[in-house]
Amino acid sequence: MSNRFLLFLLSALFFLAISCSRPPYHASNKRYKKQAKDYAKTIRQQPAVFAVSEAITPAWVGTTNFNMRKPNYVIIHHTAQNSCNETYKTFTLPQTQVSAHYVICKEGVVQHMLNDYLRAWHAGAGKWGNLTDVNSASIGIELDNNGFETFTTLQINSLLQLLDTLKRKYAIPTANFIGHADIAPTRKVDPNIYFPWKTLAGRGYGLWFGDTASISVPENLSNTNALRIIGYDVRDSIAATKAFKRHFLQDTSAVITDADKKVLFDLMNKSL
């Protein structure tokens, strides 16, 4: 066998191996497509006709007035893991039972993991105002961050671009951009005190307080009632207070100072 033929054969085998190799997450992508296809099949099914009696069987009438679910909230998380690849693995293993619509990596890469109209499993048990099934009404965004570090500029820039798209596409109210800790104060701290909520609020994604120097707080103001009006679940008022201070004051204490009370009062009025 000549050297030239051997080189040709090896090259052919190399390119064949490349062409036959499967991309990362091939198996989970295949499951995604199957699940989406199964849901599409369910949606296409004609609703059942319920006969009043054997003698009266109405013909089916399908309404033309419907659409897909419209997300009305955006919940921001940190991954509490050390890389996007770790998070991808977590979100593609069925046994973990967790997911999100988007993952944003430190270098600004945005991975859109689930169609916005489908229900991700990112919020868990949580509550905001009267909303108790947060997953059904929200889009979940995970930022690659272990919870104890600042977010990168590239990451936040990508987040702002994504939020602009989501807000315009789904007409999401300004007040409905919140964090995981806000909806689950007894269980979660993300996206934690390093997250730039003020920057987001300045762009129209989330509430923020104004100049509080001239604010006069009523003596009878109930901190718990103010937190409830903003949206917090106050069944554990200490946890709700910590979540509020983590979001708006970058503080992890549960003490409401006089200065904090002005912030609380201002945000309460913005939430009415």
Class by alpha and beta content:
alpha/beta
Q: What is the H-and-E element order? A: HHEHEEEHEHHHHH
Number of domains: 2
Task: Tell me the strand percentage band.
Answer: 5-15%
Low-confidence sequence ranges = none
The order of strands across the largest sheet is: 3-2-4-1-5
CATH topology of the largest domain: Lysozyme-like
Average per-residue pLDDT, rounded, comes to: 92
Rg, Å, rounded? 25 Å
Helix content: 25-40%
Kindly provide the name of the CATH class of the largest domain. Answer: Alpha Beta
In CATH, the architecture of the largest domain is 3-Layer(aba) Sandwich
Quickly count the helices: 9
- Label the overall shape: flat
Distance between the termini: 84 Å
In total, how many beta strands?
Answer: 5
Write the layout of secondary structure elements.
Blueprint lengths: L2 H18 L5 H19 L28 E6 L5 H9 L9 E3 L5 E3 L25 E6 L9 H18 L6 E3 H4 L13 H6 L20 H8 L6 H12 L9 H14 L1
Describe what this molecule looks like in 3D.
The protein folds into two domains: 68-208, Lysozyme-like; 209-272, no CATH class. The chain has helices at residues 3-20, 26-44, 84-92, 153-170, 180-183, 197-202, 223-230, 237-248, 258-271, and strands spanning 73-78, 102-104, 110-112, 138-143, 177-179. A five-stranded mixed beta sheet has the order 3-2-4-1-5, with helices on both faces. It contains nine helices and five strands, in the order H-H-E-H-E-E-E-H-E-H-H-H-H-H. A hairpin with a 5-residue loop joins strand 2 (102-104) and strand 3. Helix 7 packs parallel to helix 9 (258-271). It is flat and about 85 Å long. The model has no long low-confidence stretch (mean pLDDT 92). With 272 residues, it is α/β, with parallel strands linked by helices. The chain is 40% helix and 8% strand.
